[in-house]
Amino acid sequence: MVGLNALVNPVVRLAWALRLPIPGDALLETTGRRTGKRRHTPICDGLDGDVFWLVAVDGRADWVRDLDADPHVRVKVSRGRWRTGTARVLPDDDPVARRRTIGETNLARRLCVTTAALSDNDPVTVRIDLDVT
Question: Which NCBIfam families does this entry report, sorted A to Z (predicted)?
């Protein structure tokens, strides 16, 4: 059901553009490996102190491959500011268990990770170590 992202992501992007982000959602900014342009990808809010956890529904997605070329990213959560950090793909981490951990903090996160899981196609965990400000 990869088509679910094609329906949900434009709505989430519009909500961010209107400054009305959906609770439980966040934005990830990566740099395109070929173009060098900034790319914004809707993700679930996995903020945990100075670490941001996320599960990519498709470990081969373009934005995941962009991390190999440039792991420097920014993340933004609802009503928050952009935070910079360094991302690492963790192929040995259990994405199903990671989703449970992300979703246990509140209902909005749980809804986000549960909905995202419907589109799973070789999911992979990403850890972002945020710069301390």
Answer: hi_GC_TIGR00026
Exposure string of 10-36, with b = 16+ CB inside 10 Å and e = fewer, is eebeeebeeeebbebbbbbbbbeeeee
pLDDT (average), residues 92-102? 93
Contact 68, 61 (CB under 8 A): no
Burial class (CB in 10 A: 0-12, 13-18, 19+), 133: exposed
> Over the stretch 62-71, which tens digit does the pLDDT of each residue have?
999 999 999 9
Beta bridge partners of 39: 30
Residue 2, pLDDT > 50, answer no
Q: Which fold has domain 3-130?
A: Pnp Oxidase; Chain A (2.30.110)
Provide the residue count of the chain. 133
Q: Is the pLDDT of residue 23 over 50?
A: yes
> Does residue 32 surpass a pLDDT of 60?
yes
